[in-house]
């Protein structure tokens, strides 16, 4: 498994960690997979601070998805770069059709822990290509999640992906986290993903660089989630990981078409 694919173990560890702590996410599947896989993480990749960040990010994506499904229960859910995420189980129900898409070796790993149903499919594919869309009905509304994915796509690849989505579906809602250009440059030297051999990532400095209609920016670390931390952890996390400096590195954008 290459370096980019190995990055999936970083959020998996984070979700398993916060789930064991009983905060942010209830994710017993992440706990189960992490215990079984035992993938060795070191340095910042295994820090509790990053685990808190990963747990909060996933909770924000979960809450956004639930809100979108309430508004459009007939939409298909498309989770691009799903890794070993168990969002399908955390959300549970309320969707018509759900597609988890990732590289073939990642999907092969997922199949050890997740089972397809009529309403849930796993598609092995490189999302930079368009062939994966052939496995999803056309001209239907779609809710698309790109969590921890956009930073591995160039500007051209991101915009080509968005064009493919808008051409295939009748309407699209997208939630996507992004590095800034400054964060992408710094990531070559200091980023937890370096621990699994990844140094090349990409950023954007304006939501308008994506060729969809920008809706709004979301907080990656909302106060309601920070409040679930305890004592000094809450104070340190808010001061270091949720302030204005954090926004200079990492953003969360919602789009539609």
Task: Describe the model.
The protein is an alpha/beta fold. The chain has a single domain (3-256), classed as Rossmann fold (3-Layer(aba) Sandwich). The chain has helices spanning 3-6, 9-21, 28-37, 48-71, 87-91, 104-110, 155-168, 181-186, 223-226, 231-241, 244-247; strands at residues 76-80, 97-102, 120-124, 141-146, 171-179, 213-217, 250-256. It has a seven-stranded mixed β-sheet with strand order 3-2-1-4-5-7-6. Strand 2, helix 6 (104-110) and strand 3 form a beta-alpha-beta unit. Helix 2 (9-21) packs across helix 3 and helix 2 packs across helix 4 (48-71). The longest helix has 24 residues, at 48-71. The radius of gyration is 17 Å and the shape is globular. It starts with a helix and ends with a strand.
Nutshell version of this structure?
This protein has 257 residues and is an alpha/beta fold. It has helices spanning 3-6, 9-21, 28-37, 48-71, 87-91, 104-110, 155-168, 181-186, 223-226, 231-241, 244-247, and strands at 76-80, 97-102, 120-124, 141-146, 171-179, 213-217, 250-256.
Properties at a glance:
single chain, 257 residues, 7-stranded mixed beta sheet, disordered N terminus
From the N-terminal CA to the C-terminal CA, the straight-line distance is: 34 Å
Number of domains: 1
CATH topology: Rossmann fold
* Name of the top-level CATH class: Alpha Beta
Helix and strand composition category:
alpha/beta
The appropriate CATH architecture is 3-Layer(aba) Sandwich
Strand content: 15-25%
Sketch the topology as an H/E string, one letter per element: HHHHEHEHEEHEHEHHHE
Count of helical stretches: 11
Number of β-strand runs: 7
Q: Shape, please?
A: globular
Estimate the mean pLDDT confidence: 89
Question: Main β-sheet: number of strands, strand sense, barrel status?
Answer: 7 strands, mixed
> If strands are numbered along the chain, what order do they take across the biggest sheet?
3-2-1-4-5-7-6
Rounded to an integer in angstroms, the radius of gyration calculated over CA atoms is 17 Å
Which consecutive residue ranges, at least 5 long each, have pLDDT under 50? 1-5, 191-198
| Helix share bin | 25-40%
């Amino acid at each position: 498994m290459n370096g980019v694919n190995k990055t999936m173990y970083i959020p998996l560890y984070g979700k398993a960690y916060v789930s064991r702590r009983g905060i942010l996410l209830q994710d017993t599947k992440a706990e189960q997979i992490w215990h079984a896989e035992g993938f060795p993480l070191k340095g910042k990749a295994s820090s509790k601070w990053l685990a808190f960040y990963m747990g909060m990010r996933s909770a924000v994506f979960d809450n956004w998805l639930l809100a979108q499904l309430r508004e459009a229960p007939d939409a298909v859910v498309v989770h691009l770069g799903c890794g070993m995420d168990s969002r399908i189980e955390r959300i549970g129900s309320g969707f018509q059709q759900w597609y988890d898409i990732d590289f073939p070796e990642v999907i092969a790993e997922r199949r050890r822990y997740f089972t397809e149903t009529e309403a849930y499919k796993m598609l092995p594919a490189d999302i930079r290509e368009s062939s994966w869309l052939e496995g999803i009905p056309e001209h239907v509304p779609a809710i698309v999640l790109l969590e921890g994915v956009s930073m591995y796509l160039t500007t051209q690849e991101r915009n080509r992906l968005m064009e493919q989505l808008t051409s295939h579906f009748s309407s699209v809602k997208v939630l996507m986290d992004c590095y800034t250009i400054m964060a992408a440059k710094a990531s070559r030297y200091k980023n937890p993903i370096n621990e699994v051999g990844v140094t090349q990532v990409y950023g954007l400095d304006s939501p308008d660089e994506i060729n969809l209609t920008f809706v709004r920016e979301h907080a990656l670390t909302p106060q309601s989630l920070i409040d679930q931390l305890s004592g000094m952890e809450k104070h340190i996390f808010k001061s270091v990981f949720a302030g204005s400096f954090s926004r200079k590195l990492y953003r969360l954008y919602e789009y539609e078409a």
